[in-house]
Write a structure and sequence with these properties.
Elements lengths: L4 H12 L9 E8 L11 E6 L10 E4 L2 H9 L4 E3 L1 H7 L3 H10 L2 E5 L3 H12 L7 E3 L5 H8 L2 E6 L4 E8 L4 H18 L7 E8 L5 E2 L7
Parallel strand pairs: 3-4, 3-5, 5-6
Antiparallel strand pairs: 1-8, 1-9, 2-7, 9-10
């Protein structure tokens, strides 16, 4: 399968040409797969990919930390910082723990807190593929947060379709296309037969129609 950047850009342009709404629409990538037995655990995918270009839409990151790292995380603009006492309280409030797991896209944790997080929140974060990235107490949290805001999660579990946000309609089409290439490259590495496991690739805005990306098949 040949992925010419211009073909991807053309599909993105068509997708962005949908009816304008009173909000900034996301641009989503949809990849339909084939010849994959999802009953086999090794065929399921749970990956985090760093995009070359930020998606221009908030990615919510929560940090579990204590002491100086907690202070640094707040200064660096973490969407929420949870310290040890609040973490223990979440362990007694299943409703709040479930809401937390749903509300934030990614989690970062000071390494010594990981056992507590596993104990109190593992059953909520684990099934969603959202267990925190452990970092040392002296970690450069501002750089780590910046990287996490460029991450996208790929999950393939019960259905042979992957969907992820790779931009917004206000982004340059070429930058969205670069993000698409990055995701597809990772998929090629993870799939047993590479691009031969992909039946179709589409791009769409939140409220728009899916546009198929025309790609050439390798003989």
């Amino acid at each position: 399968m040949s992925l010419e950047i211009q073909k991807i850009v053309e599909a993105v342009e068509k997708a962005k040409n949908s009816k304008k709404r009173n909000f900034v629409q996301s641009v989503d990538l949809i990849v339909n797969l084939q010849d994959i037995d999802l009953k086999k655990p090794e065929h399921r995918i749970s990956e985090v990919v760093e995009l070359p270009n930020p998606v221009n839409k908030p990615v919510k990151v929560c940090v579990f930390a204590t002491g100086q790292l907690a202070l640094d995380a707040k200064k660096a603009g973490a969407d929420r910082v949870i310290q040890r006492d609040e973490l223990e309280a979440l362990g007694r409030d299943r409703k709040a723990a479930r809401k937390l797991a749903q509300e934030y896209d990614f989690f970062i944790a000071e390494a010594p807190l990981m056992p507590l997080i596993g104990r109190f929140l593992g059953s909520f974060l684990g099934p969603r593929g959202k267990m925190p990235t452990p970092v040392p107490s002296n970690a450069p949290i501002n750089q780590i947060l910046e990287r996490h805001r460029k991450l996208v999660r790929l999950r393939l579990k019960d259905q042979p379709t992957l969907k992820c946000r790779i931009g917004t309609e206000t982004m340059e089409s070429h930058k969205i296309a670069e993000n698409i290439q990055t995701v597809l490259k990772r998929l090629e590495e993870k799939l047993e037969r590479g691009f031969r496991n992909i039946s179709s690739i589409l791009v769409k805005t939140t409220m728009g129609k899916p546009i198929q990306i025309q790609v050439g098949r390798r003989k």
